[in-house]
């Protein structure tokens, strides 16, 4: 990943020197990417907001352990991925997971952009979103995170392994299992239509 900017270095030095307000510069610089990965993993804006806040709070608390030769953006991104996984684990008890896997995604809410689509487009968009969310819900939190990082964020297998604190082969297996589950689930869609 890219080298850390001088402004990140300056903000970190300021925070560690006692200027607590300097952390706001780091938050402003990295909040968008942290929120994006949180939303993609959790699939929910409110949860993504919670994850973003928790990631930056954990980052602030652990800033003294940050290695200055590392990239702050990468470091806080990894914290956000772990927070998102924690959020997913807390959201789904085993009983809820089984209920989600048994459902066909009919109860999924849909957010539609304000481009005034026609009723037929709304129905189709809703159905596609429901199938997509139903398929994503069939994944374990680890599989969902691995799939999201690989196919939505464009991370390499090594980056995913580092972000999820896994061995590289375990990260590859999580991605593979996620893809296989999604293919199977979405193949059912083709059979129904």
Quick gist of this model?
The chain has 193 residues and is mainly α. The chain has nine helices and no strands. It has helices spanning 6-16, 23-42, 45-61, 72-91, 94-102, 119-137, 141-152, 157-164, 168-192.
Describe the model.
There is one protein chain. The protein has a domain at 1-91: Orthogonal Bundle (Rna Polymerase Sigma Factor, Chain: A), CATH 1.10.1740.10. It is mostly helical and 193 residues long. The protein is elongated. The protein is built from nine helices and no strands.
Strand-helix topology:
Elements: H1 6-16, H2 23-42, H3 45-61, H4 72-91, H5 94-102, H6 119-137, H7 141-152, H8 157-164, H9 168-192
Helix pairs in contact: 1-2, 2-3, 2-4, 3-4, 6-9, 7-9, 8-9
Defining key terms:
193 residues, mainly alpha, Rna Polymerase Sigma Factor, Chain: A
Corresponding CATH superfamily of the domain at 1-91? RNA polymerase sigma factor, region 2, helix turn helix motif
Largest sheet: none
| Form type | elongated
Helix share bin: over 70%
SSE topology string? HHHHHHHHH
- Structural class, from helix and strand content? mainly alpha
């Amino acid at each position: 990943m890219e080298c850390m900017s001088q402004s990140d270095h300056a903000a970190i030095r300021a925070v560690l020197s006692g200027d607590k307000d300097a952390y706001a510069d780091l938050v402003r610089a990295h909040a968008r990417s942290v929120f994006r990965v949180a939303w993609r993993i959790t699939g929910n804006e409110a949860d993504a907001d919670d994850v973003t806040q928790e990631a930056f709070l954990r980052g602030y608390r652990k800033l003294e352990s940050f290695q200055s030769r590392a990239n702050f953006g990468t470091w806080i991104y990894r914290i956000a991925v772990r927070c998102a996984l924690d959020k997913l684990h807390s959201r789904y008890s085993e009983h809820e997971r089984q209920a989600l896997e048994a459902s066909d995604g009919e109860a999924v809410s849909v957010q539609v952009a304000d481009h005034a689509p026609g009723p037929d487009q709304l129905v189709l968009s809703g159905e596609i979103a429901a199938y997509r969310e139903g398929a994503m819900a069939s994944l374990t939190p680890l599989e969902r995170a691995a799939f999201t990082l690989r196919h939505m964020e464009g991370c390499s297998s090594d980056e995913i392994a580092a972000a999820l604190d896994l061995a590289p082969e375990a990260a590859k297996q999580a991605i593979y299992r996620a893809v296989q589950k999604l293919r199977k689930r979405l193949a059912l869609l083709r059979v129904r239509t």
